[in-house]
Design goal:
The chain contains 8 helices and 8 strands. It is α+β, with helices and mostly antiparallel strands. It has a single domain, classed as Thiol Ester Dehydrase, Chain A, CATH 3.10.129.10. The strands form 2 sheets. Strands 1, 4, 5, 6, 7 and 8 form a 6-stranded antiparallel sheet that branches. A two-stranded antiparallel ribbon has the order 2-3. Strand 7 and strand 8 form a beta hairpin. It is globular, with a radius of gyration of 26 Å. Keywords: Coiled coil.
């Protein structure tokens, strides 16, 4: 066994056959299929995206204004730019205070501004460790990759490269959703607790995931920790046969949203074998949660506005 990986590479390169000219196959027409132009494909993609967005959950009357996804990064960059000018002591102290606040509360500000409740009880997964097995490998096969495998077999370096498999995001969201409803059960009055617990089981009135749409924002890789938070996308009524939830999956390593999920959940009576509505006390509680979301959205928006104004005031004096 070679001790030096470079010698393994030299050995492999000497033994591997030289690549031959690639075999080129002439395309054969298929009479049973009509050609589809790329513009048509792009149009279909846009139509699907628009349809998914309109159906996913948040009604126009309840939709929040679109936020710049990089607003938090922009604030941090503005603070850094001010600090680089070596500002007066009082300005510098305020800027550092703003910077430390953003560093400590980035998730609460980012999620709260969208109406998510960020206290620990509302986090379906809180700083959940990404496992090595959650990832899938991506290889550029060749002599160097073969060396990588051989050396990895000896236990010297990891053998897998890539990011978390996309299907894992839906699993994270599912775990977070179950824990979200479990939290409602844990904080319910004793006489109502079992009914909440039964929602996530096929007994009596329960919930069935009708559809889920996931938007992937950035790749997550080991080692990292994620936080999953759900919110009600629509305020339910006593006649509602569906619960619409939005979820965000945050990457701690990136300090940003890694994925967004939009869930349509049907209420189902397992005993009767048909669609159903929630019992009144559940609707009352979910409506209360929705109002808490809106209150938190406004409070967080006010905090962000104060940060903007404070930083802007210092910028006006420095620049």
């Amino acid at each position: 066994m070679f001790q030096d990986p470079s010698k393994i590479l030299q050995h492999l390169e000497g033994k591997l056959p030289q690549p031959q000219s690639p075999l080129v196959l002439a395309p054969q027409p298929c009479p049973s299929m009509r050609p589809v132009s790329r513009p048509a494909l792009r149009t279909a993609s846009r139509q699907f995206s628009a349809a998914a967005s309109s159906a996913s959950l948040t009604s126009p009357a309840e939709a929040a204004p679109t936020l710049n996804p990089r607003w938090l990064t922009n604030l941090q960059s503005r603070i850094s730019a001010c600090l680089e000018t070596n500002p007066p002591a009082d300005h510098g102290a305020r800027l550092k205070k703003y910077r430390d606040y953003l560093t400590s509360n980035w998730l609460e500000l980012s999620a709260g501004r969208e109406g998510f409740l960020t206290d620990e009880r509302w986090r379906g997964l809180d700083k959940f460790g990404v496992a090595w097995g959650d990832m899938h490998g991506e290889w550029a096969w060749g002599p160097a990759a073969m060396v990588h495998v051989l050396v990895a077999t000896c236990g010297l370096i990891p053998s897998r490269q890539g990011h978390v498999n996309n299907v894992m995001y839906n699993r994270y969201a599912e775990s977070g959703r179950v824990n979200w409803f479990t939290s409602l059960a844990a904080h319910a009055p004793p006489d109502q607790r079992q009914a909440w617990i039964d929602l996530i089981s096929p007994r009596g009135t329960g919930l069935i995931l009708k559809s889920i749409k996931t938007d992937y924002k950035l790749p997550v890789a080991y080692p990292d920790r994620i936080t999953v938070i759900h919110k009600l996308a629509r305020q339910p009524s006593y006649a509602s046969e569906n619960i619409f939830l939005d979820a965000v999956i945050y990457s701690e390593a990136h300090g940003r949203v890694a994925a967004r999920c939009y869930e349509d959940i049907a209420v189902y009576n397992y005993r009767a074998g048909k669609r159903a509505t929630l019992v009144n006390f559940m609707v009352d509680e979910l409506q209360r949660v929705y109002q808490l979301q809106e209150k938190n959205r406004q409070e967080t928006e006010n905090k962000v506005k104060e940060l903007h104004q404070g930083i802007q005031a210092i910028e006006d004096r420095l620049f």
